[in-house]
Amino acid sequence: MFQYYLKLALLSIKRNPILSGLMVTAIALGIGACMTTITVNYLMSADPIPQKSDKLFYVQLDSWDPNDPFDEPNEPPDQLTWTDATNLLKAKKATRQVMMAQSVGAVEPEQQDAKPYMASIRLTSKDFFGAFDTPFLYGGGWSDEADVNREFVTVISRETNDKLFGGQNSVGKTIRVLGNNFKVVGVLDNWVPVPRFYDLTTDQFAEPEEMFMPIMLKEELELPSSGNTNCWKRPDDGFKGFLNSECVNFQMWVELESEQQKQAYKDYIDNYVKEQKTLGRFARPLNNRLSDVNEWMENQEVVADDAQIMLWLSFMFLLVCLLNTIGLLLAKFTGKTGEISLRRAVGASRKDIFVQHLIETACIGLAGGIAGLGLAMLGLQGIKVLYGSFADRVSSLDFNLVIIALILALLSSIAAGLYPTWRACAIAPARALKDQ
Amino acid sequence: MLSMNNVKKIFRTDLVETHALNDFNLQVDEGEFVAVTGPSGSGKTTFLNIAGLLETFESGTYMLDGKDVSKLNDNQRSVLRNQKIGFIFQSFNLIPDLSLFDNVDVPLRYRGFNAAERKQRIEQSLEMVGLANRMKHLPSQLSGGQQQRVAIARALAGEPRFLLADEPTGNLDTKMAHSVMELLQEINQKGTTIVMVTHDATLAAQAARNIYVRDGRVSELHDVSAMPEAVNS
């Protein structure tokens, strides 16, 4: 019977092309608007490292002003001081510990005709690559010794490798950065986590940096700080003064395998802070945090409030479109009273009529869903035009989203079709005789 | 075949209660051709709807082919309608965007026949009404008489034992009406019981038995010429 109902549905859609077209358009508009906002929200909030997002923890220590919290209500700072970050790094209490900060530096390409340029640099510790499962095209990360001995080594992005070495295996070669020669130990393959979860304190949807270097070189080379630097107390003069200050500019992630390990690490940082209190620091009550990747993304409001508001508005719009569809379906099925009562008279049960019309509604919904996908793509193009490169990474439909769109279109059109279909079923078969 | 005893049907609105059938009694035997006449509003169509299981009734008993239908639910009534009853309507009630083949197919679909059996029955029915060569045509491509023939083919395709016709020639000219009546006679002679509601005394005269309905009650007419004038209007 399914094929028969499908044939009847297509005939019915063909019989009233304008009415059917209006319904498809209404559903397509609603689905298009919804899918545009769902896509943006989905990509903004997607788990960027699902295989271990519950094992990576962002560390916060409340070293802030005793009189004012870093943020209401009683939020600890979103970064660490140099002193605390290096202490935690050296303690090695976690399976992996990643200290990091943003910096920039001038790169001087070897090619004669190439001009020097400013490259974004992530200063970090060797566990960065293992903790975040970064894919390597060539080579790998640096060693523990490279961190300790402050070696001039670097891991570069694939784009940088293409730019400086024409895509060749550059492991072992040198790059002149900040007036020093850095030995390339690894080249990352394409790696663009969306959002850039490992550092959410600044541009959350930026691409990863072009170069990665040992964090201790910051002190060695007095590398400039970029990203957010917040201080509640004026630092002493000079670079050393900044490093020893209460200014926060460093991020810290730890990898912990189990709940027990997490609890042990929490105890460790609490004890660390208590110890620091004896040295006259950490005047605020104990308020240290360990947040896994998803908790940290939520804390940092990766999905902007306005994106969420837009999502709800688009669902409201879909609802309005569906209400219109209900009206149009009622009009359509009312026009089929004669046919429905005839079918009932010659033996169709209410269930037969219900299924027939539900399939017709689903066909309209599917057509609306497909058209809606087209509109969603247009909508996403519009977002890219409006918001530029950031939007590139949060505005593309993937296979999951296409399936979601079609399921949403089907479910919503079937929901819209339930009342008109129920009304169609309620038509008395005697109407076939009476309406002559 | 059909046995109604003291059947009562009341239509209620907020203000009015209309007794459409009052102690309606009728027996129709297998193979009969019964014409039902009566003035407008007398209860003919209500009787036909109840006989065809399209409407329920308040009280009384109705046995169709030995089965008490008063206790059947909506689904069971649909099944019984599909298996035992064929309908012919005044305005044909063909589905305009289905071919003749597909129109005749409608009741068979709900019967659960396989494709081969449906095809055979459809071709046979259309052959019987003389339209086998126009199976792929749409109803709009046929004359009124031909459309009614398709409706008859649809009613017969499931081989019902009981055919209900409501003014089957009401929308046809005399020549076409005559041809449709001949077809009904032929069907009846093959054993199908027919109950036909009509205003036309000439057509009623062609039936073996005439029933006159007035104020929701039945009276037998043995002489059609004695039919009240109001019916002939």
UniProtKB/TrEMBL annotation, chain A:
<dbReference type="InterPro" id="IPR050250">
    <property type="entry name" value="Macrolide_Exporter_MacB"/>
</dbReference>
<keyword id="KW-0812">Transmembrane</keyword>
<protein>
    <submittedName>
        <fullName>ABC transporter permease</fullName>
    </submittedName>
</protein>
<dbReference type="Pfam" id="PF02687">
    <property type="entry name" value="FtsX"/>
</dbReference>
<dbReference type="Pfam" id="PF12704">
    <property type="entry name" value="MacB_PCD"/>
</dbReference>
<feature type="transmembrane region" description="Helical">
    <location>
        <begin position="21"/>
        <end position="44"/>
    </location>
</feature>
<feature type="transmembrane region" description="Helical">
    <location>
        <begin position="309"/>
        <end position="333"/>
    </location>
</feature>
<dbReference type="InterPro" id="IPR025857">
    <property type="entry name" value="MacB_PCD"/>
</dbReference>
<feature type="domain" description="MacB-like periplasmic core">
    <location>
        <begin position="20"/>
        <end position="270"/>
    </location>
</feature>
<dbReference type="GO" id="GO:0022857">
    <property type="term" value="F:transmembrane transporter activity"/>
</dbReference>
<dbReference type="GO" id="GO:0005886">
    <property type="term" value="C:plasma membrane"/>
</dbReference>
<feature type="transmembrane region" description="Helical">
    <location>
        <begin position="354"/>
        <end position="379"/>
    </location>
</feature>
<keyword id="KW-1133">Transmembrane helix</keyword>
<keyword id="KW-0472">Membrane</keyword>
<feature type="transmembrane region" description="Helical">
    <location>
        <begin position="399"/>
        <end position="419"/>
    </location>
</feature>
<feature type="domain" description="ABC3 transporter permease C-terminal">
    <location>
        <begin position="313"/>
        <end position="428"/>
    </location>
</feature>
<keyword id="KW-1003">Cell membrane</keyword>
<dbReference type="InterPro" id="IPR003838">
    <property type="entry name" value="ABC3_permease_C"/>
</dbReference>
UniProtKB/TrEMBL annotation, chain B:
<dbReference type="GO" id="GO:0016887">
    <property type="term" value="F:ATP hydrolysis activity"/>
</dbReference>
<dbReference type="GO" id="GO:0005524">
    <property type="term" value="F:ATP binding"/>
</dbReference>
<feature type="domain" description="ABC transporter">
    <location>
        <begin position="2"/>
        <end position="233"/>
    </location>
</feature>
<dbReference type="InterPro" id="IPR027417">
    <property type="entry name" value="P-loop_NTPase"/>
</dbReference>
<dbReference type="InterPro" id="IPR017911">
    <property type="entry name" value="MacB-like_ATP-bd"/>
</dbReference>
<comment type="similarity">
    <text>Belongs to the ABC transporter superfamily. Macrolide exporter (TC 3.A.1.122) family.</text>
</comment>
<dbReference type="InterPro" id="IPR003593">
    <property type="entry name" value="AAA+_ATPase"/>
</dbReference>
<dbReference type="GO" id="GO:0005886">
    <property type="term" value="C:plasma membrane"/>
</dbReference>
<dbReference type="InterPro" id="IPR003439">
    <property type="entry name" value="ABC_transporter-like_ATP-bd"/>
</dbReference>
<protein>
    <submittedName>
        <fullName>ABC transporter ATP-binding protein</fullName>
    </submittedName>
</protein>
<keyword id="KW-0067">ATP-binding</keyword>
<dbReference type="GO" id="GO:1902495">
    <property type="term" value="C:transmembrane transporter complex"/>
</dbReference>
<keyword id="KW-0813">Transport</keyword>
<dbReference type="GO" id="GO:0022857">
    <property type="term" value="F:transmembrane transporter activity"/>
</dbReference>
<keyword id="KW-0547">Nucleotide-binding</keyword>
<dbReference type="InterPro" id="IPR015854">
    <property type="entry name" value="ABC_transpr_LolD-like"/>
</dbReference>
<dbReference type="InterPro" id="IPR017871">
    <property type="entry name" value="ABC_transporter-like_CS"/>
</dbReference>
<dbReference type="Pfam" id="PF00005">
    <property type="entry name" value="ABC_tran"/>
</dbReference>
